[in-house]
Amino acid sequence: MDGSNQFTRSPLYEAQHAPRYERQKLIRSYEKKYQCRLVVMCDILFPSSITLFEEALFDADPEQDLHVILGTPGGDGETALRLARQAQARCKNLTVIVPDQAKSAGTLFALGAHQIYMGPTSDLGPIDPQFLINGSLVAAKAIIAAVENAEDRIQKNPATYPLHASLLADVTAVMVQQARDALARTDDILREALACVPGRENDEVETLVQKLKAPLIGAPKSHSAIISTDDADRFGLPVKKADPAGDRWRDVWRLWTKYAALNATRVYEGSTASYVVPSNDTAQ
Hints:
- By secondary structure, the chain is of the alpha/beta class.
- The protein has helices at residues 11-16, 18-34, 48-56, 77-88, 105-111, 140-156, 161-167, 173-184, 186-194, 202-218, 229-234, 247-262, and strands at 37-42, 66-71, 94-98, 101-102, 115-118, 123-124, 130-133, 136-139, 239-241, 266-269, 274-277.
- It has twelve helices and eleven strands.
- It has a seven-stranded mixed sheet with strand order 9-5-3-2-1-10-11, sandwiched between helices.
């Protein structure tokens, strides 16, 4: 062979996709160093996440550990359960890595892992349900509180009805009922997420449910409440606390900053698959 066919990509294609190849090189390096399969998932968690996550897991070895770097503001809790079961079915042990935030549905997904790897910047959050309204996630508690507050104000001063009707124009009666139904299921969805871990006995699940109900469901006054690494550890979650000066956290952070700089709205990436939607909404 004269070496003329040693490259499988044209120079322009190689240049256009160089950042992707650099990220995947770091992913492969992590996999080799920590003997696992690594997938990065950054997105609002809704049903479309299932197919994209499965693509990243397509050739996963069920006898190998799976590490998932997760970044999400939340989403649909039922989807989080599906993702946790999906991940557990494709690996020996599941570790969820949280470099930044994994709120709401992201926290539910993390509860279904054998281990949660968290560092000084990591943030979990309350698991109250969320709904997408005008492109933004809104907590079920906030929807119900806004409606009840409006009802109370209108009852006291009927003349304010047009104002409140305008303010809540995007909220329907069905949406309010869905929010109430979702809140009523929060205890069950917490229990189901914890039960996703193979080998976790029913007694252990129930013990964790009782420890987590207050900090993850009842106590937080805001959906944006922060649950730090130390908080999660104190609540009894299987947290592995990162050493900020250690090699592993630095490896995670070096890879994570690639996605932060990319400013992508959706990421499902591994060593062999890559679906990335940057801020200009063009899938790559």
